[in-house]
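1st attempt posting a full record on here, be nice pls
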Amino acid sequence: VRGVRRGLAPGLLDLAGIVVSFAVSLAGHRGLAPVLARIGGLDGYAADFAAFFTLFFLVSALITLLIATVLPLLHGRKASRKSKRIDQVLGVVPGAIQGCVIIIMLATAVGLLPVPAGVAVQSRNSLLTPLLEGLSTRFAPTVERQLALDSRSVFLRVHAPGDAEQVNLHFPERLAVTPDPTAEVRMLALVNQERVSNGLGPLAMDEKLRDAARTHSAEMFELSYLSHVSPRSGKPADRLKAAGIRFLLAGENLAYQPDVITAHQELMSTPGHRSNVLSPLYERVGIGVVRSESYGQMYTQEFAD
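the predicted structure (as C-alpha cells):
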C-alpha cells in the first residue's frame, strides 16, 4: 500500500535510505554503545544492539525528512494520469522490499535480543510467531557475525539437552539471578496434572531435591552452559549423593526457556524428558527454577523414588 501511494522514485529513495541507515548503524554503533550502557545501565550485549537500532531509526528519520523536503523540488511538472498510475504500480516493488527488510529486522531482534518473560508469554500464541522464528533462525547468525556479538549472544529457545549433550551459552559475567518459588509451584502443578491425566499419582515436592535442583540451575547460569553433567559436581546422581539425598532411582530434566508453560511444553515434547515426568517409579521431585530479569529462566527437575 505504501509503495503504491509513494510511487517508484520515492520508493527507490526510501529503499536507498534504509541501505544508508543500515551502513551507518553498522559502522557507528560501537561508538554509541558505551554511552547507552552508562545512561541505561545496559550490559555490553544489549548496549550494542540498542546502539545499532537507535542509530538506524535516527538516520532513517533524518533521511525521510530530507526526502520529504527535496522530493517536491524534483517534480517540476504535473504527470498525466496514465504515467502516474504506472509510477504507482512500479512503486510496489521498492515498497515490498522495504516491508521485507523491516520484517527481517524484527525477526533478527527476536532471535538475538533477550526477551522478558512477560513479553514471551504474550507473544507465544501470536500468528506471526512461526514466521518471525523462522526468519530469525535464518538471519540472526549473519547479523551476529556482522556486529561481532558471537561471544555474547544468548539464544533463548534452547532445546532441552540429551544425557551427554552440553549446550554452551553466553551470559554476562556476574549476571544477577534469583530462585523463583512461584514458577516452581506452577511447574509442579503442571507435572502432576500430566501424571494424573495419565493415571499416575502426583509427585511430592522434596526440599532437598529442590535445593539440589536450584543449585544446578544457578550454576548453569554462572558458568554459561546447559547440561546434565556439571564441570564442578559431575553427573546428577553424584550431585544428589553429595547433597545427602537417599535414592535407588533418579532422573533429571533440564530446560532453559522464558516462562513455565514454554519450558513444560518443551520437556513434554521430547520422549526422554516426558518419560521422567510420567514414570510410575518416581514418588518425589525437586524443581529448581532460577531466573534472570532479562535472560530467561533455568529449569532443573530432579526425580527420585
